[in-house]
Amino acid sequence: MEPVSFNTLSHPSGNTSRFRVSLKNMSFRLKAPFALFMSLAILLGTILAVPAMANPNYPTAAEVAAAKRNVVEKKKMIERIETLIADLEDDVEVLNREASIKAEIFNVAQEEFEIVERKVKVLEKQAKQALAEADLAAEQLGQIASQMLRNGSGGTSLNLFLNSGEADDLLYQLGAQEKLAEQTELIYQKSLERQRLAKALTDELASAQEELEAKAEVARKAFDEAQAAANAVEAKVAENKRQNRIFYNQLASLRDTASDLERQRAEGLAWERRQAAGTSIPEAPELYKVGPPNQDKVERVIAFARAQLGKPYVLGGRGPNVWDCSGLTLKAYEAAGIYIGTHSVSNQFINAMDKRQLVPVRNVEAGDLIFWSTSNNHLNRGYGDKYHIGIYIGGGLILDAPNPSKPVRIIPMNQRLGEMVPYAARPSATR
Q1: Which residues of 179-207 are buried (b: 16+ CB within 10 A; e: fewer)?
Q2: Does an H or E element contain 423, and which?
Q3: One domain for residues 76 and 200
Q4: Count of domains forming the chain
Q5: Rounded to whole angstroms, what are the CA distances from 383 to 53, 105, 109, 111, 115?
Q6: What is the pLDDT of residues 251-299, one digit of tens each?
Q7: Do 391 and 303 belong to one domain?
Q8: pTM beyond 0.85, yes or no
């Protein structure tokens, strides 16, 4: 089986990221007629496109104008518009969560593919070597057989007896014959062993190649679904920006203020809502004694992570110019010489659990890793439920690569308490 590869993906930000499923030899190119059809369809869609119809739940300019003439109605209209703005934000967060979950599923699928890919490469090398050794042993055996045939294998002992003038010479030649027979038997057995090994390895290789193809398909499907979810977030964010501009103008008209001021007011209200949503740090019992963090390594982790602020989130991104959440934590800790697992939130959590590096979130310190999960069974070893990870940098702040709608950023920890795992990981623990 030849290597499988996916093409480089273009991100709307203008950045590109290499699709990590490096499956060699599997192509997903469109056939020319279909590609032409799609091009025409896109072109026609562009030509015939019409503005999207307004949501009937959104207030019209006439309704806003009418409400402005009555104090009570004006207040109701302001509350209605602010609620709509909040709902739009909530819609994005729902999509962001779904995109993060699907991104983790893809990362896990990618990891499983890479494991099998490495196995295939090892088996290919081993099978090649075993076949070469089997061929060599068979060649040696053939040469001996050919020589024996030329000398008359059927009467070797008789020829030795008749043609030996001395007893000592006869014994020597008989011993040599016995030794030759032993060597021949050894070569024969070696040939058989190498053939059996080569057969076993080629069979295992064929099975591994089939598994690799299956993993490739799973990874491809997971990538497509994750990318679709990311695209949905970006489309929703763009639509919300367009709609919010209308809402800010309507609020400005109702309050006799500026649109920019209303935008700032709305962002402030959103921040307050997020603050209120995160009521308290999740509680959990201490599992085991974990030493304090290595401050030198923590500083290196945080310095690396801070240098990535503002860089875009991209599915499967692990630097240097684009990131996803687990790609950022992986590389930040690599910069400090610490292995925290693979490019997967679930794996990084399991790695910390296996190394007894988990601490209750209430005891979190700078450099610790914080997780989010869809499951309440926080200490399970399953893959896929842990869907987000960030670095606690101290002062109640988290640095993370959040989702397709936002770049690498720093936010207050209490803005993301929902579904936070009550255990943080301390990979830099001194003991």
Answers
A1: eeeeebeebbebbeebbebbeebbeebee
A2: strand 423-425
A3: yes
A4: 2
A5: 42, 8, 10, 11, 15
A6: 999 999 999 999 999 988 888 887 777 667 888 999 999 999 999 999 9
A7: yes
A8: no
